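Data availability (excerpt). The following record was deposited with the supplementary files.
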Amino acid sequence: MKQLARNERGAIYASNVANLVLFLAKVYASIESRSLAVIASTLDSFLDLLSGFILWFTAHTMRKPNQFQYPIGKQRMQPVVGLIPSADREVVYI
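Predicted structure:
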């Protein structure tokens, strides 16, 4: 179980690093080209980065239990956090 959690954290970290590099490259391309298609793609990459940060924050928060504030644990946060990235996508696509 600990190996799975370590692999999950590694995947989140690698995804965030890749999304950050991609976002920075697209920001540069947006500035240079001034193309609306590239700017839209940059916004999409920003949302990927934001979603990755939310997943990282949730994983980080779940690792530090507080029995007094959350007596049943923080495992129930995962389904709720799964809705946040999809909700921000819907707002952008509208």
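Summary of structural features: The CA atoms of residues 18 and 45 lie 10 Å apart.
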